[in-house]
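Structure representation:
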Amino acid sequence: MGGLLEDVQEELCAISAIYGDDAVDVDLDSGICTVRLSSGSASLTAGVLLPADYPAVSPPHLEVASTGMDDAVLDDCIAGLVESFSPGEPVIFQWLEALRMCMEDWVADQPPPSPGEGGDEATEASDDAKPGGELPSQAHPEASPGPDLGIAYRFQMGNGTWAMDSDDDGESAAGGRLLHLLQITGAQDVCVVVSRWYGGIQLGPARFTHINNAARQLLVQCDMLEGRNTKSKGPRSHA
């Protein structure tokens, strides 16, 4: 699978799970990862080229193209990413989150559109969404009687060591992927439990994307992601 180290391949797989396969293209042979992000009327595409000696020695090479966003703001946002690189530490997720937060802040600072302007509303249908809190087992008689669980925790101990582990309670490999998510996002002093009800449709590997997305949304909601409480104060030197 190309010349990338196994840890780097796992990092890229985690990025795909976090942002979704429809937003991420990964070429393990060439070491190129392309991620598409959007917020309101703005969107950007980040191309990340990983040198053979990443992350031990060299940082990734980053190229960003944006639509509906001020180029100067974007340049300022990515200015310090390379200087923030610490050899041996994975940075792809942190860099992507810095770009996403910069874009969201810029969109939030824009004045509301005048009457008569604005784009079409985008909606996503939810399979068999039922009001009133109906359980999947009630909506689908063929559904499993109970949920499969993915569990992971990561705590920093007083002596500087880490206590972390994962468990797959009926959902093979989900716990390990959740733990990897906690590690690359820098989340600490947290335990995440994601339950999945089988509703009669085989999702295959796509289920891991949904599991990681559910975990990430909860971490964001609880302000547990590393760096998210320091808005617009990311690294600032040129990439």
In short: The chain is about 30% helix and 20% strand. Residues 92-109 form the longest helix (18 residues).
